[in-house]
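From the pipeline queue, job 12 of 40. The input is one protein chain; the requested action is below.

Action: predict structure.
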Amino acid sequence: MKTYKIVLLPGDGVGPEVTAVVRDALISVGDVHGRRFEFDLQSIGGAAIDATGDPLPQKTIAACRNSDAVFLGAVGGPKWDGGAKRPEQGLLGLRKELGLFANIRPVRIYPDLIHRSPLKKEFIEGVDFVVFRELTGGLYFGERTRGDGYASDQCVYTSGEIERIARAAFGAARARRGKVTSVDKANVLETSRLWREVVTRVHGDFPTVQLEHQLVDSMSMNLIRQPTAYDIILTENMFGDILSDEASVLGGSIGLAPSASLGAGGPGLFEPVHGSAPDIAGKDACNPVGGVLSAALLLRYGLRLHDEADALEAAVERAIRHGARTKDLGGFHTCSAMGAAIIDELQDLSAPRACNVQMHWG
């Protein structure tokens, strides 16, 4: 039996609590489906700064490179604000080290949570789209300068960087509803003009997929006005960061939102969108659903275990349907209790089989 090596990076804030739920959920998946997982806990972000002085220790990089997939809880918090080294540098550095150029954020509305959305039912019912965000170029990785009374951030994109994320988005659309909405600011930015040119050229290789272009300012409005109009949303790094966070609240809570960061090869990185939420850290109060759904993406895209991913996603939906709710969803479940409800549903879906689990503490 193959052993799948998964690195767990609990990180900061609520990250350790979410990671504990995700680990238990993956163990339960292994029990049900006869899979063997080996977990290796490593440090990143603020926790790594405190322990080693480095937000991304070399030991963590080596462990991630040698894994089959990586799960990250969260990084950041006010404790490290103003320091020479910031927790977020660990996450950005890991994306670069692993060559993770495609960030994938699915947005789906659960029928039992429609009433939690800030939008009316007629606007939100049936929403099901995926944001494809380019992850290693643009402003976040450009040269930064700071002088007396001025600052600058350089935004750079190459045709190759744009083409690879565009091909990933068109390929995904071909397997879904066949539509890509490419978002840029081509009326102002030269990088966006290049973006639009390359995306249009790549579209020629996907004739069955519909392509439309939208400017980011109008897109931010239309994402609220007509969210059911979208299938695959393709955009660059900063625009994708903003739009995907906007999209994550459509379902009623950012705590529901998962993400996957993938490259051309090697392990992917999977993490909930919600961040470290330091105000509720250590209180067993956070919503672990985004983390569990990120674990489902890990199974699907990281390990190619599609049946197992389907089962975990189904367990989340069943738990919600049967009334499991954390505080952000208007309920009373703690983080650990929500995790237990999901695992109970998972175990009800199939008869369990043996799973061997090994833990390595880094």
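Job complete. Residues 102 and 165 are 6 Å apart (CA to CA).
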